[in-house]
Amino acid sequence: MEIDKQFLAAPVKTSVDKFQLLPEFLKVRGLVKQHLDSYNYFVRTHIKKIVQANDLITATKDPSIYLRYKDVRIGEPSMVLDGVTEKLTPQKCRLLDTTYTAPIYVNIEYVTGSHGSKTTQMKRDVIIGRMPVMLRSCCCILHGKDEEELAKYGECPLDPGGYFVVKGNEKVLLIQEQLSKNRIIIDTDNKGCVQASVASITAKTKSKTIIRMEKEKIYLLLNKFGTKVPIMIVLKAMGMESDQEVVQMIGRDPRYSELLLPSIEEGRALSILRDIFLANIPVDQDNFRSKCIYVAVMVRRMMEAILNKDAMDDKDYVGNKRLELSGQMLSLLFEDLFKSMNEEAVKSIDKILAKPSRSSRLDISQYIVKDSITFGLERTLSTGNFDLKRFGVNRKGMAQAVARLSYIATVGHMTKIIPQFEKSRKVSGPRALQPSQWGMLCPCDTPEGEACGLVKNLALMTHVTTDEDEGPLISLCYTLGVESFEYLSGEEVHMPNSYLIIFNGLIIGKHRRPQRFSNAMRTLRRAGKIGEFISIFVNEKQRCVYIASDGGRVCRPLVIADKGVSRIKEHHMKELKDGVRTFDSFLKDGLIEYLDVNEENNALIALYEDNAKEKTTHIEIEPFTILGVCAGLIPYPHHNQSPRNTYQCAMGKQAMGNIAYNQYCRTDTLMCLLVYPQRPLLTTRTIELVSFDKLGAGQNATVAVMSYSGYDIEDAIVMNKSSLDRGFGRCIVMKRMVSVCLKYENSTSDRIIKPQREGQDCEKMQILDDDGLAAPGQTIRADDIYINKQSPIVTRVPVKSPMALPDSSYRSSREHYKGSVGESAVIDRVALFSDRDNNMKIKFMTRQTRRPEVGDKFSSRHGQKGVCGTIVQQEDFPFSERGICPDLIMNPHGFPSRMTVGKMIELLGSKAGVSCGRFHYGSAFGEPSGHADKVETISETLVKHGFSYNGKDFLYSGITGEPLQAYIFMGPIYYQKLKHMVLDKMHARGHGPKVMMTRQPTEGRSNNGGLRVGEMERDCLIAYGTSMLLYERLMISSDEFVVQVCRKCGLLGYYNFKLKTGICSTCKNGDNISTMKLPYACKLLIQELQSMNIVPRLKLTEA
Amino acid sequence: MVSANEEQRTEKIPVWDLPDVPSGNLPAHLELQRTRTVCTNDAPIHTENIQYSGAYASMGVDNSMRFEKFCKNFRVEVIRLGDDEMEFDMVGIDASLANAFRRILISELPTMAIENVLVANNTSVVQDEVLAHRLGLIPLKVDPRLFNYKSENDQPSEKNTIVFKLHSRCEKKSSRINVKSSELKWLPGGSEFALSTEKPTQDSTSKVKTYTSFTCSQDSLPEFSSNPIAPTHDDITLAVLGPGQEIELEAHAVKGMGKTHAKWSPVATAWYRMLPEVILLQEIEDEKAEELIKKCPVNVFDIEDIGKGRKRATVARPRSCTLCRECIRGDDWDKLVALQRVKDHFIFTIESTGALPPDVLFTEAVKILEDKCERVITEMS
Ligand code: SF4
Questions:
Q1: Mean pLDDT of all residues belonging to chain A
Q2: What GO MF annotations does this protein's record show (chain B) (predicted)?
Q3: How many domains does chain B have?
Q4: Is the pLDDT of residue A648 over 90?
Q5: Which domain range does residue B82 map to?
Q6: Distance, CA B41 to ligand 1 centroid (Å)?
């Protein structure tokens, strides 16, 4: 018997392949769980809290007249059409340009009655407004539906959801990044003074408290106080009796006292102190003790930072950040609108009560107007402008139209995080990659330019928490031995062996055995007794234990290890494979837990099980999950130069491909689709997880890396004409045209009539059907009429029989296709529907099928974009020993400076893949765990199939027939066609439209504008001395104008056509008139100056 | 296969030490440069053909092309001949000529392919343009020599157009169907669609004017009567129809060349490779021989017993060498093995799409080259 010695000598494979957890994780979570969770939390829990907090409306005069909200819930998505309630599906909303909303039902108890007799009544299911429904949330009809049911609703099963449909447009509320609320942040102000600041937010108010050390003295800064207030005064105002007590409270370190001394030596707004100052600390019955402790801790930490710069907080640290999600934003908005609605109701009731004699019965429930909430929510979502007066919030661009350029763009849009502070600042700190981003935020996916590093994206496994109930947790802390301060003196607060327990920014007490306490909490969490997202973080330096249960923290799952041994064993994974286990049961059994950024500091996380040490507490599930969705498409990203991956993240979103399974049923304004999209030969695990292999955006092109023809400089690529003939890079561009048949005040309306088949204009109407609309399948050319519409001439004044007007009272309002001449499109679909105002709307989808042409932009998945430089016949292309002819040729100069080694490995891997018939993998950092094929094994496969190990082939020139003088690196690479196409960009004009005011040519391609000779071009012409050319460009071809100038007064006159002379209107004669040419803009300037009482005079001399 | 010039190649000999060569012959190393491309580890060398007649004049060697010499050397040997694939050796010819045949095969031999598609109804998910594109790429089994080119202003007639009909419907409540190329039905009588500009005539006896003007039915022609025109392959998926969807169209095929569009190319591809020559520069014995045999993925080498339990490597199947360069990779192996290509021996492969058998294609290509030569000659004289 043969014994494989190598096999026996190999170490026993200990590490368990945990990859299977990922698909399981994504199955329960979906790609946009953060949005859905947050929205679900809002509609299930938070909305109830909001209504409960504001549940009573009473008339100001008569408190016995009241209305009380009992319960609130969100119904099924529906709309009311002519009094009939109809169920809504998202696809229907997209097509009908309506909003996907569900009614908000409340149960109310209220008082009715007139003239003294009052009765209380109950009403159930009163609608107070309509809530936009997030797709795939618990309110959405798509919730929990399988693929088949989704198909029935016309919905793509791969669509992630997480957005809203508002007036037919898909809108996503982007994730907002902001600094933690209610937490102490120690940093320096712009003068370098150390300060401790807290941004407090409660249900009622918002404030910012700053304690700052200035010139050795400590002051409190609060907006409500005009000036800075010495801290000792504040503390004493809050009931600290002596300096000694203060010092005790802060801590008796002699160094602290020294720092404090100047402040003590120096020196009533109680309500401000109570309500505004540190608003997050509750004060009952004017007992300021907790606030004092808080201030003391602030001061203490600040002073520590002065003594030791390391104690300064890092604002860019992800643990100090919170992500605000759509649910939170909507709840803020809803609360605001709900309150305003109630205020409105109170106002109108007061008005009624103020009337001396009320005839009708008073029914308070009638004064709840539901439109304000509906419209408020809809307006905010469709414009993206959040305007909450109560909180003084006014933010723009919060909601964006979902990017539907490619499937990846859509998913990537859902994970995008936008910052709240201004972008223009020239600081590098917030833009730099933070070590704490590891595993939470994608290190690659960020835009270039202005927003670089500020706009981020979530990593694959990141979860964003939602709020959790605080009450039970606080009492749990007390049962676990936290000592409340009520029984402790200031002296005891900072005992050397005790730790402060800070819960969601609130100091709730201290504990003598912090490790034991935190271990107990963690054990409870792993056992599922408290929420899985609660974080317990022991900060040794600050001698604090932070417990957080608030929403907006980022966290990620990790495998728990005991003394370096993973809790997940082979049999667990087997159970998972057999379907006995789910991701949740892993959580429940304490094999996996979520850690947030802060708690990660208490953990020692090993990348692989093999390198776990004694002290290791956790093990990563898969290393490639530190990347996000967009970066996950890149094969072998860890072999690339980092910026290349960033470029690809931006470019992957512009790649054409399939958008969704329902793409041909969609009516987006612009859709770019590939005719024959493929899945990449070299895939990654992420590609499979996000189903990019089902909705690909690119094609596997055989690429030869060589120079050819000189048309390939500067990253241009040479393409094979036969490949293009056979469908490579062919794409469909669909555009939408909308036309509305309006109904007017006098109940007349637009009408669509039969086209003329003969006579004038019949040529342009050829594509119309007998119903007056363009027929699907017809070719439409520039200036063709696609709807033969007529509008009534009189629309305001009432007319006799509005439905049967004679033909003469209509004027034509046909609509013409606006395309450039020579460019034609095909009518793909025509959809008729009535919109929300009951007007008939007609949507036309036009379609153009384009084959690649010179100048179209292509890119591989490694940030290597290039335009098509030339298209060459197949017979001129080089061919290999096996008759393989490349689809495109790429210049080798693209490699050295870009250092995209990943692209080369992709080529090798794809080549091996096609020869052996197995898709190869190139997941990030996947070589050790087997999720990426190693170059060695790829080379072996290549050799086995008769290729050279290095991927270079022996090629013959197609032109001379002789062998090329080098071996050529050739193989398939996944190429994306980007949306930038020459056809949409090329532009030239001779004569054309001019701007009315200046008479200069219009600007921009869409207005058929001229090409500007700008300042720099003008400088060149001046330097070159081509005065006539300058004159021609700037004057004759632009805005030449003939003026009459009076030689005497120097002002402009006019030309009198009757007398055939120029006349000066100032001198009232035509004696000294000269005719000259001027740019019209100059004439305009002169006249504008005149209108401002400045007299510009032209002094003419004989030339 | 060990060639005589081995010694010269292995060790460098100063020029003045070169033995005198009889005039009329080249020294071995020059002869090698002239006739072989050597594939080293880094790059192929001596790839270019030496065209200049006086290149070796100093050595008294005439390098000009001689017709008699060509006739003597030229040889064609068919290795493999199938319905749509053939492999043959072409020996004693210049690369430029072999390449000319390849280029002509790819781009200048005409075939028939669908060019115009009249869509009467298409409710499938496949767009009209895409469907037309797919139809165009279907290879048709018809001899293009029987047809004329149709220029822009020609009337479509039975001499220049083939008409196919495709009518496929998926009944409501049935499951999806695949529309295959077998559904394309040849209409020997020409188009059945009435010209839209034509008013439907009352007179039912007079023929309705259609998009083609055939004078007679194509199947009455002797060429087609026994050999109906159809796509080469029956199983090319054109579209998928869901319940209630329908495609009705007419496809008009015309004659064209691969230069205009790849659909008219009669070959899937045509290419050649030069005959590989694998040379053992030294005796490779025993372990080394075993190693060499393991290295080659296509079993070019064999082992020969030379007695006394010793083994020697031999080159058994040089022709199957794919030039993976494994045998010259690493540890001075390139001193033991040399990979060469014979510059005037081409292994030509033609993959036909089915319109014509590959051997006919080649003879047609030869004819076209002949025509071209004649044209040049007449133009010049
Ligand atoms: S090049 Fe490759 S195929 Fe050819 S003989 Fe050497 S090892 Fe064999």
A1: 85
A2: DNA binding; DNA-directed RNA polymerase activity; protein dimerization activity
A3: 2
A4: yes
A5: 35-52+73-109+265-381
A6: 12
Together in a domain, B372 and B305 = yes
- Per-residue pLDDT reduced to its tens digit, A483-493: 777 766 666 66
B240 lies in the same domain as B309? no
b/e map of B234-249 (b: 16 or more CB within 10 Å)? eebebbebeeebebbb
Domain annotation covers residue B377: yes
How far is the C-alpha of A743 from the C-alpha of A297, rounded, in Å? Answer: 68
**How remote is the CA of residue B93 from the centroid of ligand 1, in Å?**
25
pLDDT at A10: 46
Same domain, B90 and B189: no
Tell me the residues of chain A between 695 and 734 that have a Cβ less than 8 Å away from chain B: 721-722, 725-727, 730, 732
Of A732, A942, A966, the CB nearest to B127: A732
Pairing of strands A605-606, A618-619: parallel
Instruction: Evaluate if residue A701 carries a pLDDT over 90.
Output: yes
Non-local CB neighbours of B119 within 8 Å, separated by 6+ positions: A777, B128, B131, B132, B248, B249
Q: Are residues A826 and B325, on separate chains, in Cβ contact within 8 Å?
A: no
Q: Is residue B93 part of a domain?
A: yes
Is residue A835 pLDDT above 90, yes or no?
A: no
Contact list in B for residue A828 (CB cut-off 8 A) is 127
Identify whether A770 is a catalytic site residue. no
Its pTM stands at 0.89
- Whether residue A357 is predicted with pLDDT greater than 80 in this model: the reply is no
State how far residue A701 is from chain B, nearest Cα, in angstroms. Answer: 17
Q: Which two tokens stand for residue A283?
A: 């004060």
Q: Which of A664, A847, A962 sits opposite B47 (nearest CB)?
A: A962
B158 and B283 inside one domain: no
Taking residues A872-880, report their average pLDDT: 94
* Partner-chain contact B262 A726, CB within 8 Å: yes
Is B107's CB within 8 Å of A967's CB? no
Residues of chain B falling short of pLDDT 70? 1-13, 15-16, 18-24, 196-207
For the segment A395-438, what is each residue's pLDDT rounded down to a tens digit? 888 889 999 989 999 999 999 998 876 656 667 778 888 888 89
Q: How far apart are CA A177 and CA A455, in angstroms?
A: 9
Same domain? For B254 and B134 the reply is: yes
SS3 string, A84-102, reads EEEECCHHHHHHHCCCCEE
**Is there a single domain that holds both residue B196 and residue B284?**
no
* Pairing verdict, β A682-683 and A920-921: parallel
Q: What is the number of other CB atoms lying within 10 angstroms of the CB of residue A660?
A: 18
Work out the widest C-alpha separation in chain B, in whole angstroms. 100
Q: Between β-strands A194-201 and B177-180, what pairing exists: parallel, antiparallel or unpaired? A: unpaired
Q: What is the ipTM of this complex?
A: 0.91
Domain stop point among B263, B297, B326: B263
